[in-house]
Write a structure and sequence with these properties.
Layout: H1 2-20, E1 28-29, H2 36-54, H3 58-63, H4 77-96, H5 99-150, E2 154-155
Antiparallel strand pairs: 1-2
Helix pairs in contact: 2-5, 4-5
Length: 156
Amino acid sequence: MKWTGVAGVALATSVLMPAMGMAQQPVVYPAKGQNPQQQVADQGQCQAWAKQSTGIDPVAVAQAPAPAQGPAVGGGQRLGGAARGAAGGAAIGAIAGDAGAGAAAGAVVGTMAGGRRARQARAQEQQNAEAQKQQALNTNYRAFAACMEARGYSVK
């Protein structure tokens, strides 16, 4: 019984934690009895002010394309890996009596290692782009929240 409880908490944590780091638009409550029409007008004015003062358009940021997906070929990682692998393989092959076969085997292994480095670099670029996107949205949302609070709303 305890195990399922621990497993449930671990599963919930792994599912919910990534979402908590994402930018979330503030929730606004009319703390001073503002009517719905006034709230809509204030929100529109505060969204425009936040966009103008921060230079960040949350709609454009949210719709911005992600970094290009596809084969990780950039940066010359595969070629560099092949060259290093061939050099190392030739040295080992020379000891064994066949430098050519060692160089060929080393080039294959080096190319694979270079491809792995290229994929890791692509994944890091994507993570950085997403982090910048979230930071921009958070900046805009903070400005919006400040404006709404100044107009008498409770913002969380």
